[in-house]
Amino acid sequence: MTRILVLGGGFAGMEVLRELERGLGRREDVELTLVSETNYLLFTPLLPQVASSLVEPRHIIQPIRDIRGKRRRFRFRRDRVTGIDLANRTVHLSEGHLGYDYLVIALGGVTPSFGTPGVADHALEYKTLPDALVLRDHLLDIAEHADHEPDKAARRRMLTVCVVGGGYTGVELVAELQDFFASYLVPRYRGIDRDDYRLMIVEAGEEILRGVHPTLARRARGKLFREGIEIRTGTRVTRVLSGAIEITGGTVIPVGLTVWAAGVKGNPVLASLPVAKDRLGRVVVDRFMQVPGHRHVFGAGDAVMVDGMPSASVPIIPAALAHGQLAAENILADLHGRARNAIEFAPRGMLVSLGERDAVVEVMGLRFSGYVAWLFWNALHLLKLVGLRKQIQVALDWTLARVFPRDSAIMRPASRCPVCQHRPSGRVGRDAA
Question: Which domains occur in the chain, in start order?
Fold first, then answer.
């Protein structure tokens, strides 16, 4: 029995299994196992719409056991990887260990703090579904406080949201938050005016949306500027404080919430692996997606960097899918006695949502923006959702949002509410609105 073990239930890991199941057919001498810390596949492009209460959280996740339905032949185990012993071909888990003959490392990445003091204590991460839910509740919490805050300056500080990181993630998030504040909070919270909230992006690089065609990047920046979103490029956050950030030069900016969305680095569990890694802690793989020196170990997704091919190492979904497909194809090639294939991936386009009715898109050399681009963004992401049920649920969420208001119920206490922690007692507030 040949044991193939896949670590990570994201896009890369699921693509490995899909390709393996298709290629193996009814072979019974191969055992497939997937290990993931969560029992669902998260559709990350719609995370901003969870944070803004536009889409229901469960509608952008698909239980792993349901993805292939009755066709599923792989075994799933929800567990946390604690270590990988390459010499003994063993993966250590929180609840035991598993052996393998072939291993695919697709554990994804995490958001790096770059050693910035205060990130862990005072900033909200933005990578997972729980992160988006926590951000949602904090946004609603500060709105509730600001609604009856008598001092306009204090109100504006509460409603200042700083997104650190001007890549795809940060830009799409801040654009969605602008829609949330303008179309929902201001009309329904009577104590909050249009000029009471402030949204900003802080980006260490000289431009936002690096990797996007300059024409579209300028178009995106212009749209955000017209919406009143403050963009600070060439600016590094040197420290995150409670209720403030410190930027290059020592300037301190008061903020109500800091959201950390700056880049991707390798999963921490990879740090102990005795293999080559890049400066971001990602495992270096060759053009066959194999870990050099370990013929039966492959990598895919945000956890890896393809040696000498930066265009194939960009942490985006199409790259993860290409990695997973090729890793599976090369495992199948070994099993069937064929030669392995090399990766030939290069991004064929990009899509960035700029909020309601606007986006910038580049597909196979064609660049366009505006309402048509926004429709294309929505249609493509709806099509890419796994499962007809999820596609219908998200489509209904979008449709109902045109008629009914977003849900502003706070589902859990805001654990890092700066107002609750630092508001002096005995102040006179305004009537609730």
Answer: 2-37+79-111+264-336 (3.50.50.60), 119-262+349-422 (3.50.50.100)
